[in-house]
Write a structure and sequence with these properties.
By secondary structure, the chain is α/β, with parallel strands linked by helices. The chain has helices at 5-10, 37-49, 60-80, 94-109, 128-137, 154-159, 183-192, 204-207, 212-215, 240-243, 280-296, 298-317, 345-354, 367-373, 389-406; strands spanning 18-19, 22-23, 25-26, 88-91, 115-119, 140-144, 165-171, 196-200, 219-223, 234-238, 256-259, 264-266, 322-325, 334-339, 357-358, 360-362, 378-382. Helix content is 41%, strand content 17%. It has a 4-stranded parallel β-sheet with strand order 6-5-7-8, sandwiched between helices. The chain has a 4-stranded antiparallel β-sheet with strand order 13-14-17-16, covered by helices on one side. A 3-stranded antiparallel β-sheet has the order 4-10-9, sandwiched between helices. The N and C termini lie far apart (46 Å). 45% of the residues are buried. Belongs to the class-V pyridoxal-phosphate-dependent aminotransferase family. Csd subfamily.
């Protein structure tokens, strides 16, 4: 099918609004994406006509809610290329997913002196849980740097492996540099050595087709609010063999089969990793968002965003006073930048906002990467499937105003 960006934009009501008297140019998609009408309508319908708690009720509304909620597990499995929907654990997003790996798998399978390999461009959500293990268990964190283009050489990751390496936790796509990492090479090499792999899919799953079984990873978390779904929704793929090595770390309803004074019997996986009343409506909305994306075609979305990336790169390269971080040939349409001179990222963002252009400013939850780059902060323009070349032009026009103000 042909990707019709105008038709896609019409599905997102917020894109028709103005900000500061200017048409909204929303380029903060790396932080959170906007929501299409089908997701908004599904949320409204769920709350207005179909809401009840799931799993434990026998009445009509509970059955309807349970059917819709549990149906999302299969949608996510299809979206991620997982052949068994029972390898999908539903949760609130990537942060919960990574903590599930840290507490449910790593604490059970690692001891003091064991090593976790990380890249320097990881998001804090894929750093802090491992620091918990470093502080509390004596686990060692091993860091691999990116090169001057922002690329992560898979061989450097493989070279960092030692007999004490138990886990590799690497992003699939950098939220700052836009770099796409060759995680397939890393995962297959790690599996040959019995090393577990946790691939942070927060950004990659939005921009490209993903097949976790082809990648060969053990864990792959995603977050719903970046996937045009509601905040508070997400999931993690866990390979069945790794799931069998895990213990639940959140206790409560639904994750148990029986509770007695002297013992409990846990539910079967994946339910035993889903404690308490879940984000029912959020998860239903996520399923609708993923169906919407798959209906457009992930290959079509990726092709449109590659065109945007190339156009934006050409326009931004023409600004010789703009410093773009991350020049990998294989990157998403994510551009982090600073301006020559003393302009702070927050000042730049404020000026852009006056022109209706929404970008992110700060460290982007990547402190080690900022230290590696020698920067305190950057601005980041992150594009989505509904963005256009005209919006790239609007960004460039706003940046030229910044240059005039701060030069």
């Amino acid at each position: 099918m042909t990707f019709d960006v105008a038709a896609v934009r019409a599905d997102f009501p917020i894109l028709a609004r103005e900000v500061n008297g200017k048409p909204l140019v929303y380029l903060d998609n790396g932080a959170s994406a906007q929501k299409p009408n089908v997701v908004i309508d599904a949320i409204n319908t769920a709350y207005a006509h179909e809401y009840a708690n799931v799993h434990r009720g026998l009445h009509y509304l509970s059955n309807v809610a349970t059917e819709k909620y549990e149906g999302v597990r299969g949608i996510i499995a299809r979206f991620l290329g997982a052949s068994d929907e029972n390898t999908i654990v539903l949760n609130s997003g990537t942060t919960e997913g990574i903590n599930t790996v840290a507490y449910g798998w790593a604490m059970e399978n690692m001891t003091a002196g064991d090593e976790i390999i990380l890249s320097v461009m990881e998001h804090h959500a894929n750093i802090v849980p491992w620091h918990f293990l470093r502080e509390r268990m004596g686990v060692k964190l091993v860091w691999v740097d990116v090169d001057s283009n922002g690329d992560l050489d898979p061989q450097k990751v493989l070279d960092a492996m030692t007999p004490r390496t138990k886990l590799i936790a690497i992003t699939h796509l950098s939220n700052v540099l836009g770099t796409v990492v060759d995680v397939k090479t890393i995962c297959h090499a790690a599996r040959e050595r019995g090393i577990a792999t946790m691939i942070d899919g927060s950004q990659a799953a939005v921009h490209m087709p993903v097949n976790v079984e082809d990648l060969g990873c053990d864990f792959y978390p995603i977050t719903g609010h970046k996937l045009y779904g509601p905040s508070g929704s997400g999931a993690i793929y866990i390979r069945a063999e790794r799931m069998a090595e895990m213990r639940p770390f959140l206790g409560g309803g639904d994750m148990i089969r029986e509770v007695h004074k002297d013992h409990v019997i846990y539910n079967d996986a994946p339910m035993k990793f889903e404690a308490g009343t879940p984000g029912i409506v959020q998860t239903i909305g996520l399923g609708v968002a993923l169906e919407y994306m798959m209906g457009l075609g992930m290959d079509n979305i990726a092709a449109h965003e590659r065109t945007l990336r190339d156009y934006a790169r050409a326009r931004l390269d023409g600004l010789n006073w703009l410093n773009v971080q991350g020049t990998s040939a294989d990157k998403a349409a994510i551009f982090s930048f600073t301006l020559d001179g003393a302009a702070h990222a927050h000042d730049i963002s404020t000026v852009l906002d006056k022109k209706g252009v929404a970008v992110r400013a700060g460290q982007h939850c990547t402190g080690p990467l900022m230290d590696h780059l020698g920067l305190s902060a950057t601005c980041r323009a992150s594009f989505a499937m509904y963005n256009t070349e005209a919006e790239v032009d609007a960004l460039v026009d706003a940046l030229e105003l910044c240059h005039k103000l701060f030069a």
